[in-house]
Specification:
Elements lengths: L7 H22 L14 H20 L6 H23 L9 H23 L1 H7 L2
Helix pairs in contact: 1-2, 2-3, 2-4, 3-4
Protein backbone atom coordinates (compact mmCIF):
# COMPACT_ATOMS: atom_id res chain seq x y z
CA UNK A 1 0.00 0.00 0.00
CA UNK A 2 1.69 3.16 -1.23
CA UNK A 3 0.45 6.68 -0.63
CA UNK A 4 1.18 9.13 -3.42
CA UNK A 5 0.91 12.84 -2.71
CA UNK A 6 3.28 13.87 -5.47
CA UNK A 7 0.59 14.60 -8.06
CA UNK A 8 -1.46 17.77 -8.24
CA UNK A 9 -4.61 15.65 -8.51
CA UNK A 10 -3.88 13.82 -5.24
CA UNK A 11 -3.21 17.09 -3.42
CA UNK A 12 -6.47 18.63 -4.64
CA UNK A 13 -8.27 15.46 -3.59
CA UNK A 14 -6.99 15.88 -0.05
CA UNK A 15 -8.07 19.54 -0.03
CA UNK A 16 -11.58 18.75 -1.28
CA UNK A 17 -11.92 15.83 1.12
CA UNK A 18 -10.82 17.96 4.08
CA UNK A 19 -13.16 20.82 3.18
CA UNK A 20 -16.14 18.50 2.73
CA UNK A 21 -15.42 16.77 6.04
CA UNK A 22 -15.37 20.14 7.82
CA UNK A 23 -18.65 21.17 6.17
CA UNK A 24 -20.24 17.84 7.13
CA UNK A 25 -19.09 18.10 10.74
CA UNK A 26 -20.33 21.68 10.91
CA UNK A 27 -23.76 20.68 9.62
CA UNK A 28 -24.12 17.65 11.87
CA UNK A 29 -22.59 18.98 15.08
CA UNK A 30 -23.68 22.62 15.15
CA UNK A 31 -26.66 23.47 17.35
CA UNK A 32 -29.81 22.46 15.51
CA UNK A 33 -31.98 25.20 14.08
CA UNK A 34 -35.59 24.51 13.09
CA UNK A 35 -35.79 24.59 9.30
CA UNK A 36 -38.83 25.65 7.32
CA UNK A 37 -39.93 22.26 6.02
CA UNK A 38 -41.98 22.33 2.82
CA UNK A 39 -45.56 21.12 3.32
CA UNK A 40 -44.75 19.70 6.77
CA UNK A 41 -42.58 16.86 5.41
CA UNK A 42 -41.49 15.38 8.73
CA UNK A 43 -38.76 13.11 7.33
CA UNK A 44 -36.71 15.94 5.84
CA UNK A 45 -33.95 15.23 8.39
CA UNK A 46 -33.66 11.62 7.23
CA UNK A 47 -33.51 12.60 3.56
CA UNK A 48 -30.78 15.11 4.45
CA UNK A 49 -28.76 12.35 6.16
CA UNK A 50 -29.05 10.13 3.08
CA UNK A 51 -27.91 12.96 0.83
CA UNK A 52 -25.05 14.11 3.04
CA UNK A 53 -23.54 10.65 3.36
CA UNK A 54 -24.10 9.84 -0.31
CA UNK A 55 -21.98 12.89 -1.12
CA UNK A 56 -19.51 11.99 1.64
CA UNK A 57 -18.70 8.56 0.25
CA UNK A 58 -18.38 9.92 -3.32
CA UNK A 59 -16.06 12.71 -2.18
CA UNK A 60 -14.09 10.24 -0.03
CA UNK A 61 -13.49 7.84 -2.90
CA UNK A 62 -12.80 10.60 -5.42
CA UNK A 63 -10.60 12.54 -3.01
CA UNK A 64 -8.43 9.60 -2.02
CA UNK A 65 -6.33 9.62 -5.19
CA UNK A 66 -3.30 9.31 -2.93
CA UNK A 67 -3.97 5.56 -2.96
CA UNK A 68 -2.66 3.97 -6.12
CA UNK A 69 -5.24 1.17 -6.30
CA UNK A 70 -8.94 1.73 -6.89
CA UNK A 71 -9.96 -0.94 -4.36
CA UNK A 72 -8.03 0.89 -1.65
CA UNK A 73 -9.82 4.13 -2.54
CA UNK A 74 -13.18 2.37 -2.25
CA UNK A 75 -12.23 0.83 1.08
CA UNK A 76 -10.98 4.18 2.37
CA UNK A 77 -14.22 5.90 1.31
CA UNK A 78 -16.36 3.28 3.04
CA UNK A 79 -14.33 3.27 6.26
CA UNK A 80 -14.12 7.06 6.49
CA UNK A 81 -17.85 7.44 5.83
CA UNK A 82 -18.73 4.79 8.42
CA UNK A 83 -16.43 6.45 10.94
CA UNK A 84 -18.02 9.86 10.31
CA UNK A 85 -21.55 8.44 10.51
CA UNK A 86 -20.95 6.59 13.78
CA UNK A 87 -18.78 9.37 15.22
CA UNK A 88 -21.25 12.18 14.60
CA UNK A 89 -24.12 10.21 16.13
CA UNK A 90 -21.95 9.35 19.12
CA UNK A 91 -20.92 12.99 19.65
CA UNK A 92 -24.52 14.14 19.25
CA UNK A 93 -25.46 11.94 22.21
CA UNK A 94 -23.40 14.28 24.43
CA UNK A 95 -24.84 17.49 23.00
CA UNK A 96 -27.60 19.43 24.72
CA UNK A 97 -28.85 20.79 21.38
CA UNK A 98 -28.69 17.54 19.38
CA UNK A 99 -29.86 13.99 19.93
CA UNK A 100 -28.38 10.74 18.74
CA UNK A 101 -30.89 8.83 16.67
CA UNK A 102 -30.32 5.26 15.44
CA UNK A 103 -32.57 6.04 12.46
CA UNK A 104 -30.22 8.85 11.48
CA UNK A 105 -27.36 6.34 11.49
CA UNK A 106 -29.45 3.95 9.38
CA UNK A 107 -30.11 6.77 6.91
CA UNK A 108 -26.38 7.52 6.88
CA UNK A 109 -25.77 3.89 5.86
CA UNK A 110 -28.43 4.08 3.14
CA UNK A 111 -26.76 7.25 1.84
CA UNK A 112 -23.38 5.52 1.90
CA UNK A 113 -24.75 2.64 -0.16
CA UNK A 114 -26.52 4.93 -2.65
CA UNK A 115 -23.40 7.08 -2.94
CA UNK A 116 -21.33 4.01 -3.78
CA UNK A 117 -23.89 3.04 -6.42
CA UNK A 118 -23.72 6.53 -7.91
CA UNK A 119 -19.93 6.44 -7.96
CA UNK A 120 -19.97 3.00 -9.59
CA UNK A 121 -22.38 4.24 -12.27
CA UNK A 122 -20.16 7.27 -12.97
CA UNK A 123 -17.06 5.07 -12.95
CA UNK A 124 -18.55 2.68 -15.51
CA UNK A 125 -19.66 5.50 -17.81
CA UNK A 126 -16.57 5.44 -20.03
CA UNK A 127 -16.66 8.97 -21.43
CA UNK A 128 -17.38 10.52 -18.07
CA UNK A 129 -14.72 8.45 -16.30
CA UNK A 130 -11.95 9.89 -18.45
CA UNK A 131 -13.25 13.47 -18.23
CA UNK A 132 -13.63 13.39 -14.43
CA UNK A 133 -10.54 11.22 -13.97
CA UNK A 134 -12.39 8.77 -11.73
Amino acid sequence: MRLRLDSKEAKWGVVVLTLWTLVLLGLLLAPSVPLPIPHGFKYFDKVAHVGLFGVTVCVSVFGSKFFSRFKLRLLFGIILSLFLAAGTEFVQSFSSTRTADPYDFLCDLVGLFLGLLLYAMLYNWKGLRSRLRL
